[in-house]
Each structure stands twice: as C-alpha cells, then as structure tokens.
Write a structure and sequence with these properties.
Layout (H helix, E strand, L loop, with lengths): L22 E6 H11 L12 H16 L4 E5 L7 H5 L17 H11 L3 E3 L6 H14 L3 E5 L13 E5 L4 E3 L1 H8 L6 H8 L14 H11 L2 H6 L7 H9 L1 H11 L21 H10 L3 H7 L35 E2 L3 H14 L1 E8 L9 E9 L2 E6 L19 H12 L5 E4 L2 H11 L9 E3 H9 L7 H9 L6 H5 L13 H26 L5 H21 L1 E3 L1 H26 L8 H11 L18 H9 L3 H26 L5 E2 L2 E3 L9 E3 L11 H6 L3 E2 L4 E8 L2 H10 L2 H8 L4 H9 L9 H15 L4 H8 L3 H14 L1 H17 L1 E3 L5 E3 L8 H37 L5 E6 L2 E7 L3 H13 L10 E6 L7
Parallel strand pairs: 1-2, 1-4, 2-3, 4-5, 7-10, 8-11, 11-12
Antiparallel strand pairs: 5-6, 8-9, 9-10, 13-14, 13-17, 15-16, 18-22, 18-23, 19-20, 21-22
Length: about 950
Amino acid sequence: MSEVAAIPNGTVAVPPVAPGQKRLILVDGSGYIFRAFHALPPMTRPDGTHVNAVFGFTQMLSQFLSRHAATHIAVVFDSARLTFRNDFYPDYKAHRPEPPPELIPQFALIREATEALGVCQAEQPGFEADDLIAAYARAFVAEGGEVSIVSSDKDLMQLIGPGVQMLDPIKQKPIREPEVFEKFGVTPDKVVEVQALAGDSTDNVPGVPGIGIKTAAQLINEYGDLETLLANTAKIKQPKRREALEQNAEKARISRRLVQLDADAPLPCPIEKMETRAPHPPTLEKFLRENGFRSLLARLGLGDASAVTRNGYRPPAPAAEMPTAPAEAPPFTGYETVTTLDRLRAWVREAEAAGVIGFDTETDNLNAMKASLVGFSLATAPGRACYVPLRHEGSGDLMGSGTPEQIDPDAAMEELKGLLENPAVLKVLHNAKYDLEVLCRAAHGGIAVAPVDDTMLMSYALRAGKHGHGMDELAGQHLGHSCISYDSCTGTGRNRIPFSKVALDKATAYAAEDADVTLRLWHALRPELRPARALALYEQVERRMVPVLRDMELAGIKIDAAELSRIGADFAEKLVRYEREIHELAGKPFNVGSPKQLGEILFDDQKLPGGKRSKLTGAWGTDAGVLEELAAQGHALPRRVLDWRQIAKLKSTYVDALAQAADAQGRVHTDFAMALTSTGRLSSSDPNLQNIPVRTEEGARIRTAFVAEPGHVLLAADYSQIELRILAHVADVPALKEAFATGQDIHSRTAADIFHLAPDAVDKEARRRAKTINFGIIYGMSAFGLGARLGIGPGEARSIIDAYFDQYPGIRACMEKLKEDARTNGYVQTPFGRKLWIADIASKDPVRRGGAERAAINAPFQGGAAEVIKRAMVRLPLALREAGLGARMLLQVHDELVFEVPEAEVEATSALVKRIMEGVASLTVPLAVEIGHGRSWAEAH
C-alpha cells in the first residue's frame, strides 16, 4: 500500500509515499493516552464507564490516519510497570504514581479502539514501549525503509539518525538532529551519555548529583563519552564536579544502562502485519456506538450519528480536541457585538459545537465581591469572538444619548447558564476565580461553571518566579501581541469613566480580545505542561484550588463590630498617650507621623549617632531599621516612636479597614491571589488577613474580633514547623528526622546538638538561639543577620553557624546544591517537583546575586510547605461533605487553615481535618498538625 488507509471522510494532508518507498509510523501509545486523559474533562458512557481518554485517543489517532502517509503503521504500548531494568535497579520509576483509578479501565478500551481503526498494536512483557520502538526502527531501516516516531518523549531522541525522525504530536513538527542538539547540546548518538550524567528524577534515574543537562553536554562534548570522562576525572579543574563524578561513577554507569533503549528487544508483531489497512466500517461503527461517541460517528460519516442512545449522557462536541495552534494566526479584529437574544443563542450553539471556548467577564470593580457584571465575552476559535453587553449606559459623545440596545441580564444569564455548566464544553478563563465569583453572584441560584481551564495558573505552574502571569504580559510573550489597554478604553485619573459607559465599539474590541487572547494562550500553554512536568501540579493542585478559594472568599469570616470598636478606641487612646510621651522625650511637639520632622529631632536636635541623609531629598532616614538600631543602643525616643508606629499601623490597616470592609452580614471577604508569589504561596489582600501580627499583645488582640456565627466555633489547624520538617527531609538529616519522628522539641534538640549540651541542660537562651538559627538557615541568613537577631557580634554568630553545619553537614550540602541548581538551571525545585525560577541569580551585582542565592535556599522549603497545605485544601471540602459535616473552610494563613464549625461537630471535624492534613504528603518525617477552637480566632490558638 502506498499510504495510510484513509478512514471514511479522511483526507491525507501530506503527499503519498512514492512507489517502491517504505515508510513506517510508530505511535507512542502512552503519550497519546495520557495526553488525551489530562486534556479532556471527565466523561462517561451510558453504563458509567469513564471514556474521556478513549475518546481523545480515538479522535487523535483517527485524525492522524487521515493526514499522514505511510506504508506501515503501529501503535506501541507499555505492557506493565516492571521491566528488565527493574531487575538490576529495583528503584527504576519507583516514584511514579499509579494511574488515576478512572483511567485504568480505559486501557483495554483504547486497545479496542486501535483495533477498530485497523491499526496494528505491539507490546511485550518485560520491555518498555520505547524499547520496542527502538527495535522496530532499526529493523525497518535495515530493510531500506524510513521511520517516523510519533512522540515528543526525550528518551526516544537517541534513535534519531539516518532514516529515523520523530514527529511532535502537539506541535505537528518534525524532530531531527538540530532539535535534539537544541535540547541536549549534543548529537543524537550522544544523548544517552548526557542522560547518564544528568539523570531523570521522573524515572528515578540517579545520574550524578549536581550535574544538569548543560554541564553534562559540556563534559561529553569535551571527552566524547561517559567512560572516557570517568577515566579522566583527574583532569577536571572544578573540585566539586570532579568529586561528584568520582564518587558517583557507578551511578552514572547504571544510569546509562537505564536510559539506553534495547534495540534487540523482540518484535511481538511481524513487520509485514503492520501494513496499513482501512478500518472495517461495521467494526468501527459498533465500537463508537458502544462508547457513545456520537460526534465521531458524524465526523467519520458512519451510519446515523443521531441513533446513538444518550441516556442522559451528553457526548463531547466534535471540536473538543487537543490544543493545536492554527497554521496561521488570524488577526485580533472583526469581533461581533451581540445585542439580541437570537444572536446570543446562535453563539451558544457555536460554542457548544466548538467544545473549547475562551470566556471573560467585564465588571465595574476589581474586587469580585463588590463587582457587578457589565457584560461578557466568548471566543469559539482564534480570531472568532464576541462581546455581550448587559449593563452599558449612554455617556455623552462617547455613545450618544440614551442606553444602547442590550439583552435583558436575567435572560442572558439563563441562556449562558446552560453553556457554562455543560460538562462537554471546556471553558478557558484567565484568573478564573474572579470570574467564577462574579457569575455566582450575577445569576439567580448562581452558575456552577465546569469544566474550567485557567491560563494564568498554567503559566504559574510552568514558570513561578520567572515573570508575571497577567494576560497582557503573556500575550506579548507567547502570541507576540500587544493587548488593548484598559486605560485606552476608560481614560485615566480624574477623566476615567466606568466600563459601563465605554462606547460599545471600544468595549467590544477590548472585551472580545480578552476572550480571544485567553483561548490562544490555552493553545500555547496547555501543550507545554506535560513536557515541562507541570501537568500534575496544574491539574491536581492549582486548578482544583479555584473552586476551593471561590467558596472561601464567598463565605468570608464574621467580624464582631462591637469588639472591633473597643479595640479601635483603646488603640486611639494609646496613640494619644504615646504621642504625649514622644513630645516630652523630644522636648517639643512635632508631627510624629512625619519622617522629615522626626529625622530633624533625632539627628539635628538630639545629635544621635548613625544618621544618614537621602541623596535624593537630603532628609534624614528614619525607617524601622534606623530606629531599631538606635533603640538597641538604649535611646528611649526611637523606641517609643516604633511603638507608636506599630499601633498606628494596626489601627489604620486592620481596625479601621476591617470595619469598612464588612458586608451587611458583618463578614469580611479577603481576596486570595493565586499567582503572585514566586514560591507558590497564596497572598491575601483587600483586606490582607495573612499579615496580622500575633507576637505582640496588640496584634494578637485583633484576632479576638474574628468570631464564629451563633452555634458555631472557629477551628484553627496549623502545620507544626512544616518548613523545618521539609528541610530535614530534603537534606536527609538523621538527627532532625529522629527528633521529628520521636516528637522531641526540635529547637531544644538542635541546641543540645550544636552547643554540645545534655538534653536537660538546655535553657531558654540556648533554645532561643537554636530556634533563631533553625529558621534563619531556611532563609539563608548570614552571620551578620544572625548576630543582629541574637544581639551578638558577627564573629560569634559565624561560630554558631559553623557549629550548626558541622553537626548537620547534610544541610550545608543541600544549600550549596540549591545555589548551584539555581545558577545552572535558573530555577530550583520543591520536593514535589514545582519549578521555582530565581530572578537575579546570574546578576553581576553581588548584592542582588546574594539575595537571589538566599531566595534559592528558601524557595524549596517555603514552596514545599505551600504545596502541602494546598493539597490539603483541595481534599478537605469533599472529605467534609462526604462525612456529612457542616464545617466551612474560611481562611488560609500560610501554614494554618481556619474553619467555621457547628459546635456539635467540633470533635469529628478536628479528627478529620487532622487526618487529611497529616496524610497529604509522604515525607521521611511525619507531618504534624495542631488543632484549636474557640468562639474567636484568638481563642482557637
């Protein structure tokens, strides 16, 4: 045969194979399966069997058959997890999780799909699919044929050479020697040498610690191959690199055996049986009907597609397939303004047929809890979008007099609800949490939007810390497009108008572009997740956080207005008293809140030492650091000013702000930013409920104003020393691991270890010093910083740090490795694999570079802690519902979760929360959670 046998209605997109030429296509079945499973929303056939991966696999393979020419084709599958590699290295792929339960039953159906499409399939117990692909490729080339391997798996790049190329199924682009060199820095025949040195954490291939792809490529290009390199380690100038190679030579050799594909693997399916053949239409039709794939029946022109029984099942729309970028991007113009219900219904039908849509809302406030819906936009394909105004109004010469024609908001919401709740249509949003909250409040009974993808969170999962994740910035990076600015529509400053008064042509251009850009970003970012090993992080953690945080923000937390008023009055009285004392210490009255006047009092009038003037303004510096240093020298005035500033900030930032932020029910609703920090942590604003100080009496008192509703209590669940536990796990410190495992006080144990004290001889001062260094180490604290914290000289502080590292050498090695990883790769990783990009790590400015190195040390521990609590947060709401408990999760404050719990359910809720939180991650030290409850947040601690 001269080409892949066309399925019904199929067309071949490439020229047919020339007469006499032989071409074999080998499809990496596992890549197709997992890509389909993760890209499509859950769906079931009439008998309840999950089939999203089956549908995606069938759709992709049928499309491939219609577009690519070959004489032979086969899909190659993995037979089982254990292979011959596990015989000599039992830990190979030991860290890989089991497939999701809903995917396992689909494996057999996918093999049925392959057979129904008339494609040969190959698998062999004891060997991986990659080994069979290597064996078939060599055998087919030996017969004079050409081979195309359909996969983007880097492990297969070692096979590229004369007669063998790869085809990236996502980008639909060939992978040849230049692409391999770009990725590995070597030619394909040297890929295994580089992989042997660099290892692979996903497959648990050890490699040589501290050597990444770039370094490995440099070494192999210099020495030729692994064995020559290992024989010449004495010539390597870098001591750490030389030592790593010498100490891990056997690991490198084992790694090479693990990554080298076995081209001598048996061929379970003879090559002659791989000749292309057309599928048997009755067999294919029967398979599609049994699985409810009505849209595929219609696309392939088989029988009467409408005859598929639905039984309540809504099959996915024909175009709901894996993201592929259009061959030529259409312009960001030509959008429609939808002002009638008939046109909206037409767009909804188009959206349902598309299967994947971009969606965005336009509002009158950045705070979702205060925003009113002004309009919304839809994109059904790149360049195909509309804007639906709902509450626009006339505004002079911008729109002329009178209100423009629009759809009644309630009627529009009723029409939109079916689309947004349709499980067969994937809704793609940017910062979905905001839009979901707006829609919950905009429609009677709310709108439960699902399934959802979030391009902001995709970018964040891929590149936290590398850049911002706003739509405008991502459009410039990934689409080469400069978005219409909000200011250009509404004006700025005093001349700014609300979006509801923007002329409809401008509003449409701006709003529809947002939906269009969102959909295009999905096409660009979604395919990156799996190759970057960020798919599980995105799907299992970040995306699942969206509805969790939406519900938390909608719930809010109750404020005791009377208690808040009492706190405010007490703070006001204290400010007056402090101000009087400050004036007495200064010898005259002045504005305590004026840094300029304070500087003149301290350094001109009282002649205190250490003052520095600003080069820009000439004013004396009076920031907190300056005042703290003066107070430490025993000066009373700067100490009292610090006290005044603290109370003034608490009053304005929290007491006054909370009173203004409370809604009609007396509850405040914070906004959790999901993609702002470089470590994966959430941040809180408007109001910020994560930074209320608790170590001072006044700060702790503010928490007494946060209360539960009548008949309820607040329950606080706090991870105990989570970052130190992750440090003990990552750095593999036996003493710290033992202390955590046996429930010892970690700071007392550290004090005993580094100061060489008997456990019963550790006093409060020794414990305080140990606690300071334990937490300081996580933040890369210097001897100068530690000395300042402990009130000792840098020399003594250096001695304490040296003693710490001497006692726990694994921590020093871990810190050095993190800095080296950041310098080599530009990022470090949490224990769970999230990449945290470190800005300024290559800066020539030593101050900025030093700050970046400290960030590299801290990021994995802070980021690891953030991921642990996020994992708990995505599991807890469902666990509470399944247990029949009425608790609501209200707040997350870094390592702490706050719940509102019915009084009768405190014991049961405490037990469930503790069990879930302590069981979300498997570390070599136990996770510990402390639980408390009370009428107020303060009482819960």
